[in-house]
Amino acid sequence: MDIQHSQIKGHFFVIIGPSGVGKNTLQEEFFKNYTHFVFPLSATSRPMREGEIDGKHYQFLSKEEFEEAIEKKKVLEWAKVHDKYYGILKEALLKQLTQGFFVMKDIDVQGALALQEIFPSELLTTIFIAPPSFEVLQERLTKRGTGDEKEIQTRLETARKELEYANKFDHKIINDSLDKAYKEFEQLVLSHCK
Ligand code: ADP
Ligand code: 5GP
């Protein structure tokens, strides 16, 4: 399935930022308030977490299945995050965009940079969410309680590298006070939907 930009009636919002910065918190609140927004299905080779549903939260694939999906060009972009594959499933996303949906998804820095090469800026908006400080990020990751100490340390190391890319994206929001950051996020997204 090739991408025909002229057939895309929707808009793709990509949210980037280190693990634990609040990407899901902001998006969950937004999706509650704006039900006409959808998220695209991604595939991953990481294990399913408690409460997750295959085909809803992700399409869960084995490492080999994911590598086959890359080979068959079923993923639009892909990256290895903490040694697991993640990638947006091409056909599902293009269907949503050609049907005119506003699509929103958080992905890693490499994936977002790849999408900037694929979509023209009038179809794609990239928003980087930054923590007020590295210490606050560490605190949020620990408090969230997903992952052991080793996993948290790996995420923090990745975060240091990711923060260096903040200026490559269209917008940057600092998630300090959640209320303030959410309002800024909401206004920004809606300003691109006119
Ligand atoms: P991400 O999706 O970026 O990995 P989450 O949305 O899961 O991050 O947020 C990580 C943790 O930080 C969660 O426990 C969340 O409730 C908390 N959190 C998010 N935003 C804020 C904020 N502005 N102030 C305090 N805690 C926050
Ligand atoms: P999690 O395992 O917590 O769901 O996601 C881990 C990381 O993978 C997050 O930084 C998330 O943004 C990123 N991610 C999720 N889906 C995709 C995707 O389809 N493509 C890319 N490149 N990254 C993704």
Please provide a written account of the structure:
The chain contains 7 helices and 9 strands, in the order E-H-E-E-E-H-E-E-H-E-H-E-H-H-E-H. It is globular. A hairpin with a 2-residue loop joins strand 5 and strand 6. With 194 residues, it is α/β, with parallel strands linked by helices. The strands form 2 sheets. The chain has a 5-stranded parallel beta sheet, sandwiched between helices. The protein has a 4-stranded mixed beta sheet with strand order 4-3-6-5. Guanosine-5'-monophosphate binds next to strand 5 and strand 6.
Topology:
Blueprint: E1 11-16, H1 23-33, E2 37-38, E3 42-44, E4 59-60, H2 63-71, E5 75-81, E6 84-89, H3 90-98, E7 102-106, H4 109-118, E8 124-130, H5 134-144, H6 149-163, E9 171-174, H7 178-191
Parallel strand pairs: 1-7, 1-8, 2-7, 3-4, 8-9
Antiparallel strand pairs: 3-6, 5-6
Helix pairs in contact: 5-6
The structure holds adenosine-5'-diphosphate and guanosine-5'-monophosphate (5GP).
How do you describe this structure in short?
The chain has 194 residues and is of the alpha/beta class.
In CATH, what is the class of the largest domain? Answer: Alpha Beta
The largest sheet has its strands arranged as: 2-7-1-8-9
Q: State the share of residues found in helices, binned by percent.
A: 40-55%
CATH homology group of the largest domain: P-loop containing nucleotide triphosphate hydrolases
Mean pLDDT: 94
Bound ligands, named by name, code or SMILES? adenosine-5'-diphosphate, guanosine-5'-monophosphate
Secondary structure tally, helices = 7
Largest sheet entry? 5 strands, parallel
Shape: globular
CATH topology (level 3) name of the largest domain: Rossmann fold
What's the oligomerization state?
single chain
Low-confidence parts, pLDDT < 50 over ≥5 residues? none
What is the number of domains?
A: 2
Order of helices and strands: EHEEEHEEHEHEHHEH
By CATH, the architecture of the largest domain is named 3-Layer(aba) Sandwich
| Beta-strand proportion | 15-25%
Cα gyration radius (Å): 16 Å
Q: How many DSSP-defined strands? A: 9
